[in-house]
Amino acid sequence: MAYVGASPEIGTFKKIDGISPAFNDSVTEFTVTSSGASVLLQSPQQLILSLDGVIQEPGVAYSVSGSKVTFSAAPNTNATFFAVRKCWGCGYSISWFN
What we know:
Layout: E1 9-15, E2 29-31, E3 33-34, E4 37-38, E5 47-51, E6 54-55, E7 62-65, E8 68-71, E9 81-87, E10 93-96
Antiparallel strand pairs: 1-9, 1-10, 2-8, 3-4, 5-6, 5-9, 7-8
């Protein structure tokens, strides 16, 4: 199939477990897991991450190191969280369009 513009990026994505119960207006560093297992993060660009439904900019709004994500500002106590890790061989195959 021909595409106008960039071809779709095909890969696997892994949903990150929720961390919002730990939000308290002061803590900025959180350990991330997926299905209860530790997740190794090598770059903030590996995550598509949202707080309160707003996609956060990798490397600006948050950084990563190992299985930790560190926000540049502490999330609000009632903030919602959703994230997926872009990876290969993680178990879920979906298409992601640029």
